[in-house]
Amino acid sequence: MQANEVMLIGALALFAAFAMGWCMHWLWTQLLRGSLPSIEAMTNVTQELLNATAQRDAAREEAALKEAELTNLLAQARAERDAAMEGLRQARISETDRL
Prior knowledge:
The protein is mainly α. The protein folds into two domains: about 1-35; about 40-99. Helices cover about 95% and strands about 0% of the residues. The protein has one helix and no strands. The chain has one helix spanning about 5-99. The chain is rod-shaped and about 135 Å long. The model has no long low-confidence stretch (mean pLDDT about 90).
């Protein structure tokens, strides 16, 4: 092989590599172009999921606060009931002692 033939084969190999790279790039962009709306849709779904998760966490926190408030009110009502029952018991005892 002469130097000219080696240079020609090298040039053809480089041109073939360039052409294959360009074709692969074109094919890649064609495939991606169809996927871009699905990527946007996935981004929207992800954002909605994050919002729903935040709302769920806020609702759980609010429910826990409401439960604590109701538990406190129940404890107060039970304490008042116990005090009233004790007062009635004392009144009944004093009434039976008086009779």
